[in-house]
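Renewal narrative, Specific Aim 1. Our central claim is that a sequence can be written position by position from structural information alone. The example that follows is taken directly from our test logs and has not been curated for this report. It begins with the structure tokens describing the chain, in the order in which they were read.
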């Protein structure tokens, strides 16, 4: 059997299983002892199952959900208290990293709740003396489910680029 036929057969047996790209997520990371936004590509490979393409996110410690009042437009500079995934379910979040030293257009991200509402916060105080500022300026409540990562370590990843993930990086979500 020629290799091309094997490939065809596997594709057929696999049915609708698609070859998804890796999972990208905006991260509040740190460099030069200040917080900065980066677009990370997680090392977890896509795994087909349950009719989905699945990406392993690891283990969590004491997850919680927060409800933030509408029009929360004043924010103070802060660090991630622990390395965590944030799932913004509803509302609007604005994050800025004013001390990153990167060009200004890379220091800002607006995240609306929903499809592209995932984020990793990893700018712990010990690696970022200057953290990030968060506000929740939506006219409705913002709801965020927080999943602190067991061991307080970011997931294995590579940095796609400085600044938040773009529409192109999140196109398949
Ligand atoms: C850290 O700062 C130095 C000096 O300003 C700069 O040359 C270097 O590129 C910075 N590193 C990163 C990762 O931005
Ligand atoms: C939030 O701001 C909007 C627009 O200014 C306003 O219509 C709304 O009443 C405010 N909501 C609260 C709870 O203050
Ligand atoms: C991740 O980013 C790359 C580069 O922008 C893109 O090709 C890929 O489709 C993205 N993955 C998803 C799941 O959106």
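The sequence written for that structure reads:
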């Amino acid at each position: 059997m020629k290799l091309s036929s094997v490939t065809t057969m596997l594709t057929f047996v696999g049915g609708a299983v698609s070859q998804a790209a890796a999972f990208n997520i905006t991260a509040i990371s740190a460099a030069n002892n200040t917080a900065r936004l980066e677009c990370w590509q997680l090392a977890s490979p896509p795994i087909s199952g349950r009719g989905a393409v699945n990406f392993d996110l690891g283990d969590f410690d004491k997850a919680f959900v927060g409800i933030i009042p509408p029009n929360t437009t004043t924010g103070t500079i802060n660090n991630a208290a622990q390395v965590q995934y944030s799932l913004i379910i509803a509302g609007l979040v604005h994050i800025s990293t004013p001390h990153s030293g990167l060009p200004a257009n890379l220091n800002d991200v607006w995240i609306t709740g929903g499809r592209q509402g995932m984020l990793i916060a990893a700018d712990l105080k010990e690696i970022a003396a200057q953290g990030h500022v968060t506000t929740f300026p939506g006219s409705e409540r913002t709801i965020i489910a927080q999943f602190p990562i067991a061991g307080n370590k970011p997931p294995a990843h590579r940095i796609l680029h400085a600044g938040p993930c773009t529409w192109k990086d999140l196109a398949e979500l």
